[in-house]
Design brief:
four-stranded antiparallel beta sheet, about 40% helix, seven-stranded mixed beta sheet, alpha/beta, 13 helices, Aspartate Aminotransferase, domain 2, Aspartate Aminotransferase, domain 1, single chain, about 400 residues, 2 domains
């Protein structure tokens, strides 16, 4: 047996991200319009960049506490309280992670024992799935496509009744990637009532919380704080995806364990990036507003335009994605996206990548210029005319 064949069997069983694989495969197509990755097309605000540069010039280049700069944790606690009404002690209930992804990894690793079950409503960003499986969990998918892409309390109650004590965590991601659907206070309170008092965590990924278009975001951390770990950060709100600064908050005894995993994984988040995030959360709390207005304009354009070229749309209330329904004759989403990329030079992500309920849809990211979106719609229209006739 070779060295590689003897490596961790759980790792070997994981497939690479098919979203990234597809994105790489079509990247070389000349002139392609890519509406694939969830990457803001805005620059990090100038004052935030300046704070990062200043930290370097001031020789702030050494380790910080593993949980993050104390002043950054205080700023994050205040930010979450002011925006979403949560109450987290910055010393015992909050840590700074390597993006929300770092928070997902550290939280699920700290929560899961082999054989536990993690409930995942789908369609959903697939990252949670390999991390849960890497830790020996069973992933139980709940298809929400017939319920407006919202997990209903009845379905959650049914799942708990079937699985019983095996369920360790429920994953919520809202506003949701890929659908853009979000949860109202009433939705969250109904779900909380189903699991309140049970030994079930909620891992609530709220990284798109600043990008909502109708009502203000409501955090599960304000409704069920004793069982919820909230993930947030500056990646989407401040166009800082590459800075890798996330926020993980929850009950003190839970954060103690999550913090161990984070410390053993990364020691601490990059120091100058933390100072940039401190600037963002203390002096740039409204930096997302101009981006939000631009995203909403783009969203509204796609909602109007895509039905005219044969794609059905749901009305996304947040994030920067459209989950578009394909015509019945084109419901193989993988076949569709490859054909569209090669023939029409437009790249979108197949709905099948996001789990049960996703097939027959494609995800379009409107974190792209209006010019690119208009060109993409024109090309999709011509493609549909050719292939639907």
């Amino acid at each position: 047996m070779g060295l590689a064949e003897g490596m961790n069997t759980r790792v070997r069983a994981l497939a690479p991200s098919d979203i990234l694989t597809f994105n790489n495969e079509i990247a070389g197509i000349d002139g392609i319009v890519k509406l694939t990755l969830g990457e803001p097309d805005f620059a990090t605000p100038g004052h935030v960049k300046a704070a990062g540069i200043r930290a370097i010039e001031d020789n702030r280049s050494h380790y910080t506490p593993s949980r993050g700069l104390p002043e950054l944790r205080r700023a994050a606690s205040t930010y979450l309280a002011d925006r979403y009404g949560t109450e987290y002690d910055p010393d015992s209930q909050l840590l700074i992670t390597a993006g929300a992804t770092g928070g997902i990894f550290s939280s699920l690793t700290a929560m899961i024992n082999p054989g536990d079950t993690v409930v995942i409503p789908t369609p959903i960003f697939p990252l949670y799935i390999p991390i849960a499986r890497l830790n020996g969990a069973k992933t139980l998918f709940v298809d929400t496509s017939q319920d407006g892409f919202i997990l209903t309390p009845d379905k959650l109650r049914s799942v708990i009744g079937q699985e019983g004590e095996k369920i360790k965590a429920l994953v919520l991601n809202y506003p949701t990637n890929p659908t853009g659907v979000t949860y109202s206070r009433e939705d969250l309170e109904a779900l909380a009532e189903v699991i309140r008092g049970k030994d079930i965590f909620v891992l609530s990924d709220e990284i798109y919380s600043e990008l909502t278009y109708e009502e203000r975001h409501v955090s599960m951390g304000s409704i069920l704080p004793e069982q919820t770990v909230v993930l947030n950060g500056v990646s989407k709100s401040h166009a800082m995806t590459g800075w890798r600064v996330g926020i993980t908050a929850g009950p003190p005894d839970v954060i103690d364990q999550v913090g161990k995993v984070s410390e053993f994984s990364i020691t601490s988040v990059t120091t100058n990036a933390q100072y940039a995030a401190l600037e963002a959360l203390s002096k740039g709390v409204d930096d997302a507003e101009p981006m939000r207005r631009a995203y909403r304009e783009r969203r509204d354009f796609l909602i109007r335009s895509l039905p005219q070229v044969g794609m059905g749309v749901i009305d996304p209330k947040g994030a920067f994605y459209i989950f578009a329904k394909l015509p019945e004759s084109m419901e193989d989403s993988w076949k569709f996206v490859y054909s569209l990329a090669r023939e029409a030079k437009v790249a979108v992500i197949p709905g099948a990548s996001f789990g049960p309920g996703g097939e027959g849809y494609v995800r379009l990211s409107y974190a792209a210029s209006m010019d690119d979106l208009q060109l993409a719609v024109e090309r999709i229209g011509r493609y549909m005319e050719t292939h639907c006739s």
